[in-house]
Specification:
globular; mainly alpha; two-stranded antiparallel ribbon; about 525 residues; about 65% helix; 24 helices
Protein backbone atom coordinates (compact mmCIF):
# COMPACT_ATOMS: atom_id res chain seq x y z
CA UNK A 1 0.00 0.00 0.00
CA UNK A 2 2.90 2.36 0.78
CA UNK A 3 6.33 2.52 -0.89
CA UNK A 4 9.32 1.39 1.18
CA UNK A 5 11.31 4.56 0.61
CA UNK A 6 8.72 6.58 2.56
CA UNK A 7 9.82 5.08 5.85
CA UNK A 8 13.04 4.57 7.76
CA UNK A 9 14.44 1.06 8.07
CA UNK A 10 13.54 -0.68 11.32
CA UNK A 11 16.02 -2.25 13.71
CA UNK A 12 15.77 -5.63 12.00
CA UNK A 13 17.12 -4.22 8.72
CA UNK A 14 20.53 -5.60 7.88
CA UNK A 15 21.94 -3.34 5.18
CA UNK A 16 22.66 -5.12 1.88
CA UNK A 17 21.78 -8.72 2.87
CA UNK A 18 19.25 -10.25 0.53
CA UNK A 19 15.67 -10.75 1.69
CA UNK A 20 15.86 -14.50 2.31
CA UNK A 21 19.09 -14.33 4.29
CA UNK A 22 17.58 -11.47 6.27
CA UNK A 23 14.44 -13.48 7.09
CA UNK A 24 16.55 -16.53 8.06
CA UNK A 25 18.67 -14.48 10.46
CA UNK A 26 15.64 -12.85 12.06
CA UNK A 27 13.86 -16.18 12.65
CA UNK A 28 16.94 -17.61 14.35
CA UNK A 29 17.16 -14.58 16.64
CA UNK A 30 13.89 -15.60 18.31
CA UNK A 31 14.66 -17.42 21.61
CA UNK A 32 13.32 -20.99 21.94
CA UNK A 33 11.42 -20.01 25.07
CA UNK A 34 9.48 -17.37 23.09
CA UNK A 35 8.68 -19.85 20.32
CA UNK A 36 7.35 -22.38 22.84
CA UNK A 37 5.24 -19.83 24.73
CA UNK A 38 3.69 -18.51 21.52
CA UNK A 39 2.89 -22.02 20.30
CA UNK A 40 1.41 -22.93 23.69
CA UNK A 41 -0.62 -19.70 23.81
CA UNK A 42 -2.10 -20.51 20.40
CA UNK A 43 -3.14 -23.95 21.69
CA UNK A 44 -4.74 -22.42 24.79
CA UNK A 45 -6.67 -19.88 22.67
CA UNK A 46 -7.95 -22.75 20.51
CA UNK A 47 -8.92 -24.71 23.66
CA UNK A 48 -10.44 -21.58 25.25
CA UNK A 49 -8.54 -22.32 28.45
CA UNK A 50 -9.04 -19.06 30.34
CA UNK A 51 -6.98 -20.00 33.40
CA UNK A 52 -3.89 -20.89 31.36
CA UNK A 53 -4.35 -17.83 29.13
CA UNK A 54 -4.57 -15.65 32.22
CA UNK A 55 -1.26 -17.05 33.50
CA UNK A 56 0.39 -16.62 30.11
CA UNK A 57 -0.90 -13.07 29.71
CA UNK A 58 -0.22 -11.77 33.22
CA UNK A 59 2.94 -13.74 34.04
CA UNK A 60 4.72 -15.48 31.16
CA UNK A 61 4.60 -12.70 28.54
CA UNK A 62 5.70 -9.95 31.01
CA UNK A 63 8.57 -12.21 32.12
CA UNK A 64 9.70 -12.77 28.52
CA UNK A 65 9.46 -9.03 27.91
CA UNK A 66 11.68 -8.28 30.91
CA UNK A 67 14.14 -10.99 29.90
CA UNK A 68 14.49 -10.36 26.15
CA UNK A 69 12.58 -7.27 25.00
CA UNK A 70 12.71 -4.72 27.81
CA UNK A 71 14.04 -1.94 25.56
CA UNK A 72 13.47 -3.31 22.07
CA UNK A 73 10.55 -4.57 20.03
CA UNK A 74 9.14 -8.09 20.10
CA UNK A 75 9.72 -10.27 16.99
CA UNK A 76 7.44 -9.43 14.09
CA UNK A 77 4.84 -12.08 13.33
CA UNK A 78 6.76 -13.27 10.24
CA UNK A 79 9.64 -14.24 12.54
CA UNK A 80 7.52 -16.66 14.57
CA UNK A 81 5.15 -17.72 11.76
CA UNK A 82 7.01 -21.02 11.16
CA UNK A 83 6.52 -22.05 14.79
CA UNK A 84 2.73 -21.56 15.00
CA UNK A 85 -0.21 -22.73 12.93
CA UNK A 86 -1.71 -20.49 10.24
CA UNK A 87 -4.54 -18.75 12.08
CA UNK A 88 -5.72 -15.20 11.27
CA UNK A 89 -7.17 -14.63 14.76
CA UNK A 90 -3.94 -15.56 16.51
CA UNK A 91 -2.13 -13.43 13.94
CA UNK A 92 -4.27 -10.39 14.90
CA UNK A 93 -3.91 -11.01 18.64
CA UNK A 94 -0.13 -11.39 18.39
CA UNK A 95 0.18 -8.19 16.34
CA UNK A 96 -2.01 -6.35 18.84
CA UNK A 97 0.45 -7.34 21.60
CA UNK A 98 3.40 -6.47 19.34
CA UNK A 99 2.21 -2.93 18.56
CA UNK A 100 1.11 -2.35 22.14
CA UNK A 101 4.64 -3.20 23.30
CA UNK A 102 6.05 -0.79 20.70
CA UNK A 103 3.93 2.07 22.06
CA UNK A 104 4.75 1.23 25.69
CA UNK A 105 8.45 0.33 25.63
CA UNK A 106 10.04 1.65 22.43
CA UNK A 107 7.96 4.65 21.32
CA UNK A 108 11.09 6.32 19.95
CA UNK A 109 11.33 3.76 17.13
CA UNK A 110 7.61 3.99 16.29
CA UNK A 111 7.03 5.36 12.79
CA UNK A 112 3.97 6.31 10.76
CA UNK A 113 3.67 3.01 8.89
CA UNK A 114 3.47 1.08 12.17
CA UNK A 115 0.78 3.41 13.51
CA UNK A 116 -1.29 2.78 10.37
CA UNK A 117 -0.63 -0.99 10.41
CA UNK A 118 -1.76 -1.18 14.04
CA UNK A 119 -5.03 0.54 13.10
CA UNK A 120 -5.71 -1.92 10.26
CA UNK A 121 -4.90 -4.82 12.58
CA UNK A 122 -7.51 -3.54 15.07
CA UNK A 123 -10.00 -3.20 12.20
CA UNK A 124 -9.45 -6.86 11.20
CA UNK A 125 -9.80 -8.07 14.78
CA UNK A 126 -12.96 -6.09 15.53
CA UNK A 127 -14.53 -6.89 12.15
CA UNK A 128 -14.03 -10.59 12.90
CA UNK A 129 -15.86 -10.20 16.23
CA UNK A 130 -18.58 -7.73 15.17
CA UNK A 131 -19.41 -8.99 11.66
CA UNK A 132 -19.87 -12.64 12.66
CA UNK A 133 -23.39 -14.01 12.11
CA UNK A 134 -23.05 -16.15 15.22
CA UNK A 135 -20.81 -15.70 18.27
CA UNK A 136 -17.14 -16.39 17.49
CA UNK A 137 -15.46 -19.25 19.31
CA UNK A 138 -12.99 -17.07 21.19
CA UNK A 139 -12.54 -16.52 24.91
CA UNK A 140 -9.91 -14.26 26.46
CA UNK A 141 -9.22 -13.18 30.08
CA UNK A 142 -11.00 -10.02 31.20
CA UNK A 143 -7.68 -8.24 31.79
CA UNK A 144 -6.66 -8.87 28.16
CA UNK A 145 -10.04 -7.73 26.80
CA UNK A 146 -9.89 -4.53 28.86
CA UNK A 147 -6.38 -3.74 27.69
CA UNK A 148 -7.37 -4.29 24.03
CA UNK A 149 -10.10 -1.63 24.34
CA UNK A 150 -7.95 0.67 26.48
CA UNK A 151 -4.99 0.44 24.09
CA UNK A 152 -7.27 1.00 21.08
CA UNK A 153 -8.32 4.37 22.50
CA UNK A 154 -4.80 5.21 23.67
CA UNK A 155 -3.40 4.65 20.17
CA UNK A 156 -6.17 6.83 18.71
CA UNK A 157 -5.22 9.54 21.22
CA UNK A 158 -1.52 9.12 20.41
CA UNK A 159 -2.12 9.24 16.65
CA UNK A 160 -4.33 12.34 16.96
CA UNK A 161 -1.55 14.19 18.75
CA UNK A 162 1.12 12.85 16.39
CA UNK A 163 -0.91 13.98 13.36
CA UNK A 164 -1.39 17.45 14.85
CA UNK A 165 2.35 18.04 15.42
CA UNK A 166 3.27 19.31 11.97
CA UNK A 167 6.52 21.12 12.81
CA UNK A 168 8.87 18.16 12.21
CA UNK A 169 6.93 16.23 9.57
CA UNK A 170 8.62 15.36 6.28
CA UNK A 171 6.85 15.86 2.95
CA UNK A 172 6.49 12.08 2.61
CA UNK A 173 4.78 11.82 6.01
CA UNK A 174 2.41 14.69 5.23
CA UNK A 175 1.50 13.08 1.88
CA UNK A 176 0.79 9.78 3.64
CA UNK A 177 -1.38 11.52 6.24
CA UNK A 178 -3.33 13.30 3.49
CA UNK A 179 -4.02 9.93 1.82
CA UNK A 180 -5.21 8.41 5.10
CA UNK A 181 -7.56 11.04 6.52
CA UNK A 182 -10.06 8.40 7.74
CA UNK A 183 -7.44 6.27 9.48
CA UNK A 184 -7.71 6.61 13.28
CA UNK A 185 -10.66 9.02 12.79
CA UNK A 186 -12.93 9.66 15.76
CA UNK A 187 -15.89 8.32 13.75
CA UNK A 188 -14.24 4.92 13.27
CA UNK A 189 -13.40 4.65 16.99
CA UNK A 190 -16.95 5.60 17.99
CA UNK A 191 -18.35 3.14 15.45
CA UNK A 192 -16.36 0.19 16.86
CA UNK A 193 -17.27 0.98 20.49
CA UNK A 194 -20.98 1.48 19.77
CA UNK A 195 -21.13 -1.70 17.66
CA UNK A 196 -19.62 -3.69 20.55
CA UNK A 197 -22.09 -2.14 23.01
CA UNK A 198 -25.06 -2.89 20.72
CA UNK A 199 -23.88 -6.41 19.85
CA UNK A 200 -23.61 -7.38 23.50
CA UNK A 201 -26.87 -5.77 24.66
CA UNK A 202 -24.81 -4.76 27.70
CA UNK A 203 -27.06 -1.78 28.57
CA UNK A 204 -30.13 -4.04 28.71
CA UNK A 205 -28.20 -6.56 30.82
CA UNK A 206 -27.08 -3.86 33.26
CA UNK A 207 -30.60 -2.45 33.46
CA UNK A 208 -32.05 -5.83 34.47
CA UNK A 209 -29.13 -6.39 36.88
CA UNK A 210 -29.71 -3.00 38.54
CA UNK A 211 -33.41 -3.86 38.96
CA UNK A 212 -32.43 -6.97 40.91
CA UNK A 213 -33.21 -9.30 38.01
CA UNK A 214 -32.11 -12.92 38.25
CA UNK A 215 -29.63 -14.63 35.94
CA UNK A 216 -32.39 -16.05 33.71
CA UNK A 217 -33.85 -12.60 33.09
CA UNK A 218 -30.38 -11.25 32.28
CA UNK A 219 -29.79 -14.12 29.86
CA UNK A 220 -33.13 -13.41 28.16
CA UNK A 221 -32.23 -9.79 27.35
CA UNK A 222 -28.58 -10.58 26.56
CA UNK A 223 -29.46 -12.20 23.26
CA UNK A 224 -27.37 -14.71 21.33
CA UNK A 225 -24.16 -12.66 21.48
CA UNK A 226 -24.52 -11.06 24.91
CA UNK A 227 -24.65 -14.48 26.58
CA UNK A 228 -21.03 -15.06 25.58
CA UNK A 229 -18.42 -13.70 27.97
CA UNK A 230 -16.30 -12.25 25.12
CA UNK A 231 -19.11 -10.02 23.81
CA UNK A 232 -20.48 -9.16 27.25
CA UNK A 233 -17.13 -7.95 28.60
CA UNK A 234 -16.12 -6.18 25.38
CA UNK A 235 -19.48 -4.37 25.54
CA UNK A 236 -18.91 -3.38 29.17
CA UNK A 237 -15.35 -2.19 28.53
CA UNK A 238 -16.55 -0.30 25.43
CA UNK A 239 -18.87 1.74 27.68
CA UNK A 240 -15.82 2.71 29.73
CA UNK A 241 -13.98 3.40 26.47
CA UNK A 242 -16.76 5.77 25.43
CA UNK A 243 -16.49 7.54 28.79
CA UNK A 244 -12.79 8.10 28.12
CA UNK A 245 -13.27 9.10 24.49
CA UNK A 246 -15.98 11.68 25.21
CA UNK A 247 -13.83 13.11 28.02
CA UNK A 248 -10.87 13.48 25.64
CA UNK A 249 -13.18 15.37 23.27
CA UNK A 250 -14.46 17.63 26.08
CA UNK A 251 -18.07 16.35 26.06
CA UNK A 252 -18.41 15.69 29.79
CA UNK A 253 -22.20 15.33 29.91
CA UNK A 254 -22.12 12.59 27.27
CA UNK A 255 -19.12 10.98 28.98
CA UNK A 256 -21.15 10.32 32.15
CA UNK A 257 -24.38 9.63 30.27
CA UNK A 258 -22.91 6.56 28.49
CA UNK A 259 -22.45 5.00 31.94
CA UNK A 260 -26.03 5.63 33.07
CA UNK A 261 -26.61 1.89 33.58
CA UNK A 262 -23.40 1.39 35.57
CA UNK A 263 -23.79 2.22 39.26
CA UNK A 264 -20.84 4.53 39.80
CA UNK A 265 -21.22 4.53 43.57
CA UNK A 266 -20.91 0.77 43.97
CA UNK A 267 -18.12 -1.65 43.14
CA UNK A 268 -19.11 -3.26 39.85
CA UNK A 269 -19.87 -6.96 39.77
CA UNK A 270 -19.08 -7.08 36.05
CA UNK A 271 -15.49 -5.92 36.16
CA UNK A 272 -12.83 -7.00 38.61
CA UNK A 273 -10.10 -5.40 36.50
CA UNK A 274 -8.37 -2.72 38.63
CA UNK A 275 -7.24 -0.68 35.61
CA UNK A 276 -10.84 -0.43 34.42
CA UNK A 277 -12.17 0.67 37.81
CA UNK A 278 -9.46 3.32 38.18
CA UNK A 279 -10.08 4.61 34.65
CA UNK A 280 -13.80 4.98 35.42
CA UNK A 281 -13.05 6.93 38.60
CA UNK A 282 -10.47 9.21 36.97
CA UNK A 283 -12.60 10.21 33.98
CA UNK A 284 -15.91 10.39 35.88
CA UNK A 285 -14.28 12.50 38.60
CA UNK A 286 -12.68 14.78 36.02
CA UNK A 287 -15.99 15.16 34.15
CA UNK A 288 -17.75 16.06 37.42
CA UNK A 289 -15.08 18.66 38.16
CA UNK A 290 -15.46 20.29 34.73
CA UNK A 291 -19.26 20.32 35.20
CA UNK A 292 -18.77 22.15 38.54
CA UNK A 293 -20.10 19.20 40.53
CA UNK A 294 -17.24 19.34 43.03
CA UNK A 295 -18.89 17.32 45.81
CA UNK A 296 -19.45 14.41 43.39
CA UNK A 297 -15.90 14.75 42.05
CA UNK A 298 -14.45 14.66 45.58
CA UNK A 299 -16.56 11.61 46.47
CA UNK A 300 -15.52 9.81 43.26
CA UNK A 301 -11.80 10.52 43.71
CA UNK A 302 -11.91 9.69 47.45
CA UNK A 303 -13.64 6.33 46.95
CA UNK A 304 -11.20 5.34 44.22
CA UNK A 305 -8.08 6.42 46.13
CA UNK A 306 -9.24 4.51 49.22
CA UNK A 307 -9.85 1.45 46.99
CA UNK A 308 -6.30 1.80 45.60
CA UNK A 309 -4.85 2.09 49.10
CA UNK A 310 -6.55 -1.15 50.16
CA UNK A 311 -5.92 -3.24 47.03
CA UNK A 312 -2.68 -1.87 45.56
CA UNK A 313 -0.70 -4.96 46.54
CA UNK A 314 -3.09 -7.14 44.54
CA UNK A 315 -2.41 -5.48 41.20
CA UNK A 316 0.95 -3.81 41.65
CA UNK A 317 2.90 -6.12 39.34
CA UNK A 318 0.16 -7.91 37.42
CA UNK A 319 -0.22 -5.70 34.40
CA UNK A 320 1.94 -3.76 31.99
CA UNK A 321 -0.47 -0.92 32.83
CA UNK A 322 1.02 -0.55 36.32
CA UNK A 323 2.83 2.66 35.33
CA UNK A 324 -0.41 4.07 33.91
CA UNK A 325 -2.31 3.16 37.09
CA UNK A 326 0.35 4.89 39.24
CA UNK A 327 0.19 7.97 37.02
CA UNK A 328 -3.62 8.14 37.17
CA UNK A 329 -3.46 7.74 40.96
CA UNK A 330 -1.15 10.76 41.27
CA UNK A 331 -3.39 12.71 38.88
CA UNK A 332 -6.44 11.90 41.01
CA UNK A 333 -4.66 13.22 44.11
CA UNK A 334 -3.89 16.43 42.23
CA UNK A 335 -7.49 16.79 40.99
CA UNK A 336 -8.76 16.05 44.52
CA UNK A 337 -6.53 18.86 45.83
CA UNK A 338 -7.95 21.29 43.21
CA UNK A 339 -11.55 20.34 44.08
CA UNK A 340 -10.90 20.76 47.83
CA UNK A 341 -9.58 24.28 47.22
CA UNK A 342 -12.63 25.22 45.14
CA UNK A 343 -15.11 23.38 47.37
CA UNK A 344 -13.67 22.74 50.87
CA UNK A 345 -15.07 19.75 52.73
CA UNK A 346 -13.90 17.03 55.07
CA UNK A 347 -12.36 13.89 53.53
CA UNK A 348 -11.02 10.63 54.92
CA UNK A 349 -8.13 11.15 57.34
CA UNK A 350 -5.84 8.76 55.46
CA UNK A 351 -6.33 10.70 52.21
CA UNK A 352 -5.68 13.98 54.02
CA UNK A 353 -2.45 12.49 55.35
CA UNK A 354 -1.42 11.28 51.89
CA UNK A 355 -2.07 14.73 50.41
CA UNK A 356 0.32 16.18 52.99
CA UNK A 357 2.92 13.45 52.44
CA UNK A 358 2.79 13.87 48.66
CA UNK A 359 3.56 17.57 49.20
CA UNK A 360 0.26 18.81 47.83
CA UNK A 361 -0.18 21.03 50.90
CA UNK A 362 2.09 23.73 49.44
CA UNK A 363 0.22 23.66 46.11
CA UNK A 364 -3.13 23.86 47.89
CA UNK A 365 -1.95 26.85 49.95
CA UNK A 366 -0.87 28.68 46.80
CA UNK A 367 -4.20 27.97 45.10
CA UNK A 368 -6.12 29.11 48.19
CA UNK A 369 -4.21 32.41 48.00
CA UNK A 370 -5.49 32.82 44.44
CA UNK A 371 -2.30 31.88 42.57
CA UNK A 372 -3.61 31.55 39.00
CA UNK A 373 -0.32 30.08 37.69
CA UNK A 374 -0.52 27.29 40.28
CA UNK A 375 -4.07 26.43 39.20
CA UNK A 376 -2.94 26.26 35.58
CA UNK A 377 0.10 24.13 36.42
CA UNK A 378 -1.90 21.66 38.54
CA UNK A 379 -4.66 21.39 35.94
CA UNK A 380 -2.28 20.74 33.04
CA UNK A 381 -0.37 18.08 34.98
CA UNK A 382 -3.54 16.23 36.06
CA UNK A 383 -5.86 16.55 33.05
CA UNK A 384 -6.14 13.98 30.22
CA UNK A 385 -4.40 14.61 26.89
CA UNK A 386 -7.28 16.15 24.99
CA UNK A 387 -7.75 15.60 21.27
CA UNK A 388 -9.63 17.37 18.50
CA UNK A 389 -12.58 15.55 16.87
CA UNK A 390 -11.36 16.65 13.43
CA UNK A 391 -7.96 16.44 11.76
CA UNK A 392 -6.12 19.78 12.05
CA UNK A 393 -4.97 21.82 9.05
CA UNK A 394 -1.57 20.74 7.76
CA UNK A 395 -0.21 24.30 7.89
CA UNK A 396 -0.75 24.72 11.65
CA UNK A 397 2.43 23.82 13.59
CA UNK A 398 0.83 24.02 17.07
CA UNK A 399 -2.56 22.45 16.38
CA UNK A 400 -1.85 19.70 18.97
CA UNK A 401 -1.92 22.32 21.75
CA UNK A 402 -5.32 23.79 20.89
CA UNK A 403 -7.64 21.18 22.55
CA UNK A 404 -5.80 21.47 25.90
CA UNK A 405 -5.74 25.29 25.67
CA UNK A 406 -9.51 25.35 25.14
CA UNK A 407 -10.24 23.12 28.17
CA UNK A 408 -7.78 25.09 30.30
CA UNK A 409 -9.54 28.31 29.30
CA UNK A 410 -12.94 26.90 30.34
CA UNK A 411 -11.55 25.74 33.69
CA UNK A 412 -9.68 28.99 34.40
CA UNK A 413 -12.79 31.09 33.74
CA UNK A 414 -14.45 29.19 36.59
CA UNK A 415 -11.38 29.62 38.83
CA UNK A 416 -11.21 33.37 38.20
CA UNK A 417 -14.86 33.72 39.19
CA UNK A 418 -13.99 32.07 42.52
CA UNK A 419 -10.68 33.86 43.10
CA UNK A 420 -11.98 35.98 46.01
CA UNK A 421 -14.07 33.27 47.66
CA UNK A 422 -11.39 31.71 49.94
CA UNK A 423 -10.62 35.17 51.38
CA UNK A 424 -14.31 35.93 51.91
CA UNK A 425 -14.81 32.50 53.51
CA UNK A 426 -11.96 33.11 55.97
CA UNK A 427 -13.55 36.41 57.14
CA UNK A 428 -17.05 34.95 57.41
CA UNK A 429 -15.73 32.27 59.79
CA UNK A 430 -14.59 34.95 62.24
CA UNK A 431 -17.90 36.76 62.79
CA UNK A 432 -21.58 36.17 63.46
CA UNK A 433 -22.73 39.61 62.24
CA UNK A 434 -20.86 42.23 60.28
CA UNK A 435 -21.85 45.38 58.33
CA UNK A 436 -21.35 44.83 54.63
CA UNK A 437 -19.33 48.02 54.13
CA UNK A 438 -16.95 47.08 56.96
CA UNK A 439 -16.24 43.62 55.52
CA UNK A 440 -15.83 45.18 52.06
CA UNK A 441 -13.27 47.54 53.58
CA UNK A 442 -11.29 44.59 54.97
CA UNK A 443 -10.78 43.19 51.47
CA UNK A 444 -10.49 46.68 49.90
CA UNK A 445 -13.44 46.30 47.50
CA UNK A 446 -16.34 48.68 46.80
CA UNK A 447 -19.60 47.85 48.60
CA UNK A 448 -21.64 46.94 45.50
CA UNK A 449 -18.83 44.87 44.02
CA UNK A 450 -18.43 43.04 47.34
CA UNK A 451 -22.17 42.34 47.43
CA UNK A 452 -21.75 40.67 44.02
CA UNK A 453 -18.94 38.52 45.42
CA UNK A 454 -21.18 37.44 48.31
CA UNK A 455 -23.90 36.44 45.86
CA UNK A 456 -21.29 34.58 43.80
CA UNK A 457 -20.21 32.78 46.99
CA UNK A 458 -23.79 31.61 47.60
CA UNK A 459 -24.14 30.54 43.97
CA UNK A 460 -20.81 28.68 43.70
CA UNK A 461 -21.40 26.74 46.91
CA UNK A 462 -24.70 25.38 45.52
CA UNK A 463 -23.86 22.20 43.60
CA UNK A 464 -25.87 19.41 42.03
CA UNK A 465 -25.00 16.38 44.18
CA UNK A 466 -25.83 12.75 43.45
CA UNK A 467 -28.13 11.27 46.12
CA UNK A 468 -29.72 8.17 44.60
CA UNK A 469 -30.35 6.39 41.33
CA UNK A 470 -28.15 4.58 38.83
CA UNK A 471 -27.32 7.50 36.55
CA UNK A 472 -24.40 9.65 37.62
CA UNK A 473 -26.15 12.67 36.09
CA UNK A 474 -28.99 12.58 38.63
CA UNK A 475 -28.78 14.76 41.71
CA UNK A 476 -30.20 17.52 43.87
CA UNK A 477 -29.00 21.04 44.57
CA UNK A 478 -27.20 21.18 47.92
CA UNK A 479 -25.09 23.77 49.68
CA UNK A 480 -21.57 22.55 50.33
CA UNK A 481 -20.37 25.53 52.35
CA UNK A 482 -19.34 25.14 55.97
CA UNK A 483 -20.53 28.73 56.59
CA UNK A 484 -23.91 30.13 55.62
CA UNK A 485 -25.16 33.69 55.74
CA UNK A 486 -27.90 36.04 54.66
CA UNK A 487 -27.90 39.79 54.06
CA UNK A 488 -30.55 41.92 55.79
CA UNK A 489 -30.31 45.41 54.34
CA UNK A 490 -26.59 46.11 54.81
CA UNK A 491 -25.94 43.67 57.65
CA UNK A 492 -24.43 40.23 57.02
CA UNK A 493 -25.72 37.53 59.41
CA UNK A 494 -23.43 34.50 59.51
CA UNK A 495 -24.21 30.98 60.73
CA UNK A 496 -21.49 28.38 61.18
CA UNK A 497 -22.78 25.11 59.72
CA UNK A 498 -19.54 23.22 60.29
CA UNK A 499 -20.17 19.71 61.59
CA UNK A 500 -18.20 18.78 64.69
CA UNK A 501 -15.35 16.41 63.96
CA UNK A 502 -16.11 12.76 64.68
CA UNK A 503 -13.22 10.83 66.22
CA UNK A 504 -15.01 7.49 66.55
CA UNK A 505 -14.61 6.46 62.90
CA UNK A 506 -10.88 7.19 62.99
CA UNK A 507 -10.29 5.00 66.07
CA UNK A 508 -12.48 2.19 64.68
CA UNK A 509 -10.38 2.14 61.48
CA UNK A 510 -7.15 2.03 63.48
CA UNK A 511 -8.51 -0.85 65.59
CA UNK A 512 -9.41 -2.79 62.42
CA UNK A 513 -5.93 -2.14 60.98
CA UNK A 514 -4.31 -3.31 64.22
CA UNK A 515 -6.47 -6.48 64.28
CA UNK A 516 -5.56 -7.22 60.63
CA UNK A 517 -1.86 -6.70 61.39
CA UNK A 518 -2.16 -9.12 64.32
CA UNK A 519 -3.80 -11.76 62.07
CA UNK A 520 -1.08 -11.39 59.44
CA UNK A 521 1.66 -11.78 62.07
CA UNK A 522 -0.03 -14.92 63.47
CA UNK A 523 -0.39 -16.40 59.97
CA UNK A 524 3.32 -15.89 59.28
Amino acid sequence: MYSDEEYAEDEYSYGHHDQYSNQYDREHMVPDKVKKVMSYMQDMIADRNINELNTLYETSIPELTEQYYKTCEWPEFEEIANYVRADPVFHNLYKELYYRHLYARVPGSLHLEQRLESYWNYCELFNYIISAESPVMLELPNQWLWEIIDEFIYQFQSFSQYRAKMAKKSEAEIDTLKRNTKTWSVHSILSVLHHLVDKSNINKQLEVYNNQGNSEEIQDVAGEFGRHSLYKMLGYFSLVGLLRLHSLLGDYYQAIKVLENIELNKNSQHSKVPGCQITISYYVGFAYMMMRRYADAIRTFSNSLLYIQKTKQNFQTKSYQNDQINKQTDQMYMLLAICLVLHPQRIDESLQTTLREKQFADKMNKMQRGDIKEFESCFMSACPKFVSPVAPPFDSPEAHLEPAKLQLQVFMEEVEQQQMLPTIRSYLKLYTTMPLEKLAGFVDIKDEEFRNYLLAFKHKMQNVVWTKGTSGLEGEFQSGSEVDFYIDKNMIHIADTKVARRYGDFFIRQIHKFAELNRNLRDE
